[in-house]
Amino acid sequence: MAGPTEGRGVVTDLVANLQRIFRHALPGLLILAVARAGQPRWFDRVNWSEPWHLATLAVVAFVVGNTWYVLHRYTVEQALDMLVFLWHRQSLRGYRDWLIPHLRAGQGAKATEPEREYFYLRSAHTTYLFIMAEATALFSWAPQEPSFLQRHTSLALGMAVLAAVAALWQWFILDRLDCELVGTSPTRGKGVKGK
């Protein structure tokens, strides 16, 4: 994240960089928080008033969050993209031939800067919802006793399912928005109207 721009305040810079915060910082903090709620003994040796312990946790959160983000983005979201293509084309044949021009077109999309920023922020929010659902479901499975998730497993799993449904809903909206902004669609040239 760049330093504060002259004439702009910290809050304005934070708002301008929200999608980067959602992509790079918040997933790891969320994962550590959910891990602590389900596996508290993992954190027994953490001295919460020791700056080096907190710095170490911050590094772990950054690495784990970014790793999870990338794994999610290039597995779950790629699989969803392939399913949408399959739905429209009735075959995965030609997926790569469609994907490469679509990605290239996205680099030179005619979208305005506010449209692009809105898309990136909404995309980051959607991925964050997915990660929230995944982490909550994972750490609710066989939580340690006593722990928050052990006492409230049903509630946590219900919230994970709701987050996953919301993320899927938003992902399909984003997929449509992406194709509209870029001007490509898996249905183009196949006699299917729109996407």
Produce the secondary structure layout.
Layout: H1 10-16, H2 18-24, H3 26-38, H4 51-73, H5 76-89, H6 95-107, H7 113-140, H8 148-151, H9 153-182
Helix pairs in contact: 2-7, 3-4, 3-7, 4-7, 6-9, 7-9
Q: What string, H for helix and E for strand, traces the elements in order?
A: HHHHHHHHH
The total count of strands amounts to 0
**Binned strand content:** under 5%
Number of helical regions: 9
Provide mean pLDDT, rounded: 84
Radius of gyration: 20 Å
Unreliable spans = 188-195
Distance between the termini: 35 Å
Largest sheet, if any? none
Structural class: mainly alpha
Range of helix content = over 70%
Inertia-based shape: globular
Domain module tally: 1
Describe the structure.
With 195 residues, the protein is mostly helical. The chain has one domain (10-182). 71% of the residues lie in helices and 0% in strands. It is built from nine helices and no strands. It has helices at residues 10-16, 18-24, 26-38, 51-73, 76-89, 95-107, 113-140, 148-151, 153-182. The protein is globular, with a radius of gyration of 20 Å. Mean pLDDT is 84; it is low at 188-195.
